[in-house]
Amino acid sequence: MSNFFVKDEVYQERIALCRECVYYFKPTGNCKICGCFMKIKSRISSMSCPKKHWTATNKIENPDIIPEELIEECLLIWEDVKTGVAKNVTIKKKMIELYNTIYNANFKTTSNCSSCLNSCYYGIRQIVEKYKT
User: Fold this and answer.
1) 10 Å Cβ neighbour count for 91?
2) How far apart (Å, rounded) are the C-alpha atoms in residues 71 and 64?
3) Residue 89: its pLDDT value, please?
């Protein structure tokens, strides 16, 4: 779990950049582009600024072996998320759960955070591209 959060120095640098950014909404501490609460997002090592003012310091590693049934689920769900937008809330929840299972992540299935959803989308996409026949 220690790699999940950045060190305090990195957090201070990130949040300082956010607070100086024109897209930082001071009353709530949200980014106007991604909508995330930057006090939280800037603490997570695998997150990055949507304008690339700061980047991820840790990547979520791809698993070496993915069980066949999970690959099949990725291929099935891909049809409903391949545009970048899930067809409905049930599909979005299923995509997040599938991503969490495969990548040992812990995104909330109710998340509307664009960075979190993009991570899930691209993780599923990588599997589809690798195993699509």
Assistant:
1) 15
2) 13
3) 93
